[in-house]
């Protein structure tokens, strides 16, 4: 873990190792007890495609399965 502090203009500089590993863009998530920086991929669509390469079903099939599961859970 690394400490960082704000400069006189309110800017936070991340250590070089962090920037090299995760990139230069982050989404800031406010939690009840702090904040979390979530890296934003240079091309978010490519990142999603990479994340779901092992999914064999189409979006329509996934949507239909989710709909059926929701109906079953609701007792219909």
From TrEMBL:
<dbReference type="InterPro" id="IPR007159">
    <property type="entry name" value="SpoVT-AbrB_dom"/>
</dbReference>
<feature type="domain" description="SpoVT-AbrB">
    <location>
        <begin position="4"/>
        <end position="45"/>
    </location>
</feature>
<dbReference type="GO" id="GO:0003677">
    <property type="term" value="F:DNA binding"/>
</dbReference>
<protein>
    <recommendedName>
        <fullName>SpoVT-AbrB domain-containing protein</fullName>
    </recommendedName>
</protein>
<dbReference type="InterPro" id="IPR037914">
    <property type="entry name" value="SpoVT-AbrB_sf"/>
</dbReference>
